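Backbone-to-sequence.
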């Protein structure tokens, strides 16, 4: 059993890394082309559209955030019929929400120029962009439940495989649309919609193979099950509202309170922090199936052990990227988007990445609240924090000259403080563990990140100056290699190193 868990962990990890590298690699390749083709001002509306449409996820997340937990626990308890009821209840409820949302969104898009600042020459393109972003969001909502099967069976590599194919298809579609038709930012959301539909079809096949007992049947809908999941998931909606207030309003406030140009620069600056956040989510997700499994078995001690391993695993990689992004950020943006305001973008990126000093490992603890179904307090805490963020940001934009820098910095700094003080304490309480359970890891991660940052700047002075993409890649690989060696011997302890050898070399059973 343990050997199988390690084997699937390796496969899931490798597939997730491949999918992440491919997805973000495609984005790195495409973004300069898209910015030069449609302009940074127009490109900023892509992120704004996604953020604004995702406001609707405040409603949809109530069901979808807990669907995996309910279905997984029932499967592990051997109650597949009940799992099928949860599965169908989520699917049909999402379908109804999608239809209702569509009729709410379309009138808003029709008069979009009254809600946000849109340059006159971009009005039609931006509206079409929003239309396809809405379709993509609604398709994702409806098909979300089909991604549960890979989670339940701990076959996350299957989801990663689908994401790889989707990323490659996205490039092919964009090449076709921009190569055949006049440039239009709406192609970006159109290709995303097409890829999402294809991914839903793929996930439905995976569901049929892994969980043949689950199938779409209207008769299996249970309003009692929907009510039960909503009761648990309503706090996830509050958490999503918190995220919207803390992060999702950034570009909107920047558009309305500063300028469309500043919004475009901020959108580019958010690239690295967004990648880091995405990577943290991917790395933490690798541990969720086993954490849920052990909790369903009542083994809280093993859940805590898995949480600590999760924190170490995330911190190992994220600290290296964090230090490298600051040390070589200016060179990276100069090579990536040479025509833009590089000093401004680099400063905004450094400000926005500061929250990773805590969230790099603290994010792994967020699954505790979902697994233990203790979402209420966590949601209310972050809602209060986010309301405070929003008020402070608007005040600073209106009353001071900080402008876009206030938009980028306030929520990140406050998030850093809250993740360092509150998250580990409440996670320990939910697991009935000592208050200091997770603090040694958190403090060690912060110190490790700062030491790595100092060392990277020293190494940067010793390496040849970056004069092009090749020298940048060579220097980045040098820093990455040094960072891995440092973290292996300094950040990981003896037991961590021993377990890593057992897992990745598979020389003996755990």
């Amino acid at each position: 059993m343990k050997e199988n868990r390690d084997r699937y962990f390796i496969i899931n990890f490798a597939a997730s890394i491949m999918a992440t590298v491919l997805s973000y690699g495609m984005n790195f390749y495409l973004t300069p082309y898209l910015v030069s083709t449609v302009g940074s001002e127009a490109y900023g509306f892509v992120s704004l559209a996604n953020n604004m449409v995702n406001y609707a996820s405040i409603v949809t997340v109530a069901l979808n955030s807990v669907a995996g937990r309910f279905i997984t626990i029932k499967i592990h308890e051997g109650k597949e019929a009940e799992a099928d009821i949860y599965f169908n209840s989520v699917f049909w409820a999402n379908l109804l929400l999608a239809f209702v949302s569509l009729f709410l969104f379309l009138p808003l898009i029709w008069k979009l120029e009254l809600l946000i600042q849109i340059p006159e020459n971009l009005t039609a393109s931006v509206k079409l962009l929003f239309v396809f972003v809405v379709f993509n969001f609604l398709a994702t909502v409806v098909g979300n439940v089909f991604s549960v099967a890979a989670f339940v069976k701990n076959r996350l590599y299957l989801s990663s495989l689908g994401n790889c194919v989707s990323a490659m298809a996205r490039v092919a579609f964009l090449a076709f649309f921009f190569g055949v038709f006049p440039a239009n930012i709406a192609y970006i959301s159109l290709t995303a919609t097409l890829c999402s539909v294809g991914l839903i079809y793929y996930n439905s096949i995976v569901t049929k193979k892994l969980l043949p007992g689950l199938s779409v049947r209207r008769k299996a809908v249970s309003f009692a099950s929907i009510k039960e999941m909503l009761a648990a998931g309503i706090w996830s909606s509050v958490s999503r509202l918190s995220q919207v207030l803390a992060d999702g309003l950034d570009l909107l406030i920047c558009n309305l309170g500063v300028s469309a140009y500043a919004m475009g620069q901020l959108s580019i600056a958010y690239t690295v922090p967004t990648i880091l956040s995405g990577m943290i989510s991917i790395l933490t997700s690798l541990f969720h199936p086993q954490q849920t499994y052990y909790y369903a078995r009542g083994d809280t001690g093993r859940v805590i052990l898995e949480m600590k391993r999760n924190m170490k695993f995330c911190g190992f990689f994220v600290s290296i990227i964090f230090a490298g992004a600051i040390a070589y950020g200016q060179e990276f943006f100069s090579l990536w988007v040479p025509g833009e305001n590089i000093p401004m973008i680099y400063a905004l990126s450094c400000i926005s990445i500061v929250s990773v000093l805590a969230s790099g490992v603290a994010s792994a603890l967020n699954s505790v609240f979902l697994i233990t179904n203790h979402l209420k307090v966590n949601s209310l805490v972050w809602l209060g924090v986010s309301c405070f963020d929003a008020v402070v940001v608007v005040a600073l934009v209106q009353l001071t000259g900080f402008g876009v820098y206030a938009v980028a910095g306030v929520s990140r700094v406050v998030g850093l403080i809250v993740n360092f003080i509150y998250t580990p304490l409440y996670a320990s309480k939910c697991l009935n563990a000592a208050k200091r359970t997770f603090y040694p890891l958190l403090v060690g991660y912060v110190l490790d990140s700062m030491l790595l940052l100092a060392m990277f700047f020293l190494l940067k002075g010793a390496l040849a100056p970056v004069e092009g993409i090749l020298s940048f890649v060579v220097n980045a690989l040098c820093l990455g290699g040094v960072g891995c060696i440092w973290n292996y011997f300094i950040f990981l302890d003896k037991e961590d190193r021993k377990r890593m050898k057992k897992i990745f070399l598979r020389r003996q059973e755990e």
